[in-house]
Amino acid sequence: MANLVEATSQPQFENILAKSGKCLTVVHFQAAWAPQCEQMNDVMAVLAGEHGSSTFVKLEAEAVPEVSEKYEITSVPTFLFFKAGEKVDRLDGANAPELTKKVQKLSVAGGAAAEPGPVDLNQRLKKLLNSAPCMLFMKGAPQEPRCGFSRQIVALLKEHSIQFSSFDILSDEEVRQGLKTYSNWPTYPQLYVNGELVGGLDIVKELAESGELETTCPKAVTLEHRLKTIINQSPVMLFMKGNKEGARCGFSRQILEIMNEAAVDYDTFDILQDEEVRQGLKTYSNWPTYPQVYVKGELVGGLDIIKELKESGELKSVLKGES
Questions:
Q1: pLDDT digit string (tens) for 142-196?
Q2: Rounded Cα gap, residues 63 and 8, in angstroms
Q3: Which of 38, 167, 287, 310 is most buried by a 10 A CB count?
Q4: For the segment 223-232, what is each residue's pLDDT rounded down to a tens digit?
Q5: Nearest of 242, 244, 239, 248 to residue 299 by alpha carbon
Q6: Distance (Å, rounded) from C-alpha 245 to C-alpha 242?
Q7: How many CB atoms lie within 10 A of CB 309?
Q8: Cβ(231)–Cβ(223) under 8 Å?
Q9: Exposed (0-12), middle (13-18) or buried (19+): which is 41, by Cβ within 10 Å?
Q10: Angle between the 118-129 and 35-50 helix axes, to the nearest 10 degrees?
């Protein structure tokens, strides 16, 4: 696909931007070790087929650090949107509906997009339906519903702590009309679970009244609960930049060396992969920096404390939970 390319150097990246002119260029800052990046590349390929006048670029964030640092890329996947060589928008995280929405919106002013055929549209709809375990197609966004039915269904889902993503059908007429035929359901909102239609507002109301809504849809997990789960994933947990195979900052590299010397089993969590965890854990633990080490769910500390424990000869016993 001519408009889906890879940039492996800063000059190549800048050349792609220059060639694109006023047309939209979407750059995916990715990492080979992140499975969510691979999933978003599939979405990129579909979008590239639909928007022939736009350019879609895959860029390995760690391999081209000059570009990543210039645009303050701190996690993957991150998407930047360019026109006439200037950044016009940004999207952090693996959010297929939001990426689709931004491309649809920004590509309009950059020239006529290629008209997708029915097969392409069905593929796109299938991608959207499966972009989250629970997908709500509505008018507006959960924060700002743009019709009474959408407002009611959002309120119901929130009231029952249902975790869901959404797509604003008002932002994409093709999806709005195509999904009616695809699902054989003529009205909105529409709720899908694991790619299958549940129904509209009336069905969701019935499920809520019967107590079946919680078993039909995935429950939202609070950040605190999620953090507790990750912290207790292993008796010894190290939150760092990178992982056991490769640290991505000097402090993380030092603590890896010390932990490996201690010869105690531990697991790691790469905070660069998850901005919610990265920021939330600082508040949860009241510890503002990384790396952080936890033993049996309790914070031990960062690099300085681990160094002190090593020097005093206490590190191994602390990591084993003996003191």
A1: 888 999 999 999 999 989 988 888 888 887 888 899 999 999 999 999 999 989 9
A2: 7
A3: 167
A4: 788 899 899 9
A5: 239
A6: 8
A7: 21
A8: no
A9: middle
A10: 150
